[in-house]
Amino acid sequence: MAQTTVVDTEILRSVASQLLTNGSITVNDKSVPVRRTGQQQLKTAAFSVAGHQYQAIEQNAEKPSRWGQLARAGHQVVQFKDAESNKFVAVVVDGKVTFYSGKERA
């Protein structure tokens, strides 16, 4: 079974901060634009680490999840999705990185 690439926590912290404050993000000297999603107009950016694609997405404060509650309370919440599996792999809240379970499905 192929091992999933785990992106460095410092990169996630940096991307989360840049996503919420800049018009672009820079990862490993490569700059990519911050875009807005369709209806909710959430900030998002796609980036690559060691040839693996990820997407950073600003948390929707309208969601009833604990992450949505934190965003509503004024915390900076950014979700990270693995572009290949289309699954969320981590979240950064006010600079603190939390990785989701690494359980793989058959």
Distance between the termini: 10 Å
Kindly estimate the percentage of residues that lie in beta strands according to DSSP: 35-45%
Question: How would you sum up the global shape?
Answer: globular
- What class would the helix/strand composition place it in? alpha+beta
Indicate how many domains the architecture comprises: 1
- Topology order in helix (H) and strand (E) letters: HEEEEEHEEE
The count of strands amounts to 8
Oligomer: single chain
- What spatial order of strands do you see in the largest sheet? 3-4-5-6-7-8
Q: What average pLDDT do the residues reach? A: 90
The main β sheet shows up as: 6 strands, antiparallel
Q: Please, how many helices? A: 2
Indicate the low-confidence ranges by residue numbers. Answer: none
Radius of gyration: 13 Å
Helix content class: 10-25%
